[in-house]
Amino acid sequence: MNTTYIRNPVDDTVSPLNDAANPIYISSLDMVPGINAEECAALAQVTELFAFRSNDYYLSLIDWDDPADPIRRLIIPTLEELEPWGHLDPSSEHRYTRAPGLQHKYRETALLLVSDLCGGLCRYCFRKRLFIEDA
Prior knowledge:
three-stranded antiparallel beta sheet, globular, alpha+beta, about 20% helix, 7 strands, two-stranded antiparallel ribbon
């Protein structure tokens, strides 16, 4: 079995992809072993607007020989994200945000968003606007 290694951009260490004890969070497509330089350049305009972040475990699940792989489509950006569609705030969360990380939409409940970190930033996420600096 071949092992794929990845360089951690934070401390410059090299470890096997999918080392469960030490997950690596990747926020640049040029660090993704299955993305070539041409594809990375083509997707740069997407990642300039919508952040990319994944961990090595999710990346290890992708069948890189299948462009329609469901995990790939879940976390790897596509040019289709630049097409105008819908609203960035489909559930009107902005209107109900009382303080950063606190939403109060219903009288008897409140929602605390205690972290802005995810294992990966899903391409369909309805909170995508939270990861856009100018939003």
